[in-house]
Amino acid sequence: MKIKIDDITDNGLTVTLAEDGARIASLAEGGLDYTILSPVTGLLDFVKNDGNVFINGNLSAKLRFACSRCLKEIDLPVDSNVTLYYERGRDEDRDKEIKPSDVDVNRFPGEEFDTDEIILAQVALDAPIQPLCDPECKGLCSKCGADLNEGECGCHREGHGETKFAKLKDFKVK
After folding, report:
1. Quick one: 120 and 157 in the same domain?
2. Could you write out the DSSP letters of every residue in 30-98?
C-alpha cells in the first residue's frame, strides 16, 4: 500500500494492514530463508512534523522455517513493534561518516511510503536467526542423517555424543 505524505494530516494517519505474505516475500527476490504465511496484519500510525515522518505501530505474521537442527518444517509467529523515523532526502545526501544520531534515522526521497517495504524489513529483523522446532531438538545424525529426535539411529557413529572439542578435555597447559 502506498501512503502519500500529503495524505498524512496534522492529526496523523492510522493505517490497518492485511497483506498477502507471498507478495511481500516476492519483494525480497528469493533472498529469504523462510516463507511468509498469509496474511501479514498490522496497525501503523503515521505522524508528520516539518516534512519528516514518524511511524509507530505493530505487525504480526506467521513464518514457516526449516528447523536449524533437524530440518523439520515449523511455523513460528512473529510480532513486531515498529518505530521508525524518516527525514526527507536521499541517503546520498548524508555525509560519508555516519554519526550516532544517524543510526535511527531513515531517509525518503519521494512523496510516498510503501508499506510493503516496511513490512518486509520489520519481519526480516524479527525473524529468528536459528529457528528450532524445540529447544531440546537433537538434530540429525552427522553420519547417516537420521532424525535423532525419533530415537538413536544405530549407525554406531564414532565418538557418539562427543563434540569436536572432546579431545581437549585431557589437554593440560604446562
Report:
1. no
2. T--SSEEEEEEEEEEEEEEETTEEEEEEEEEEEEEEE-TTT--EEEEEEEEEEEEEEEES-GGGS-SSP
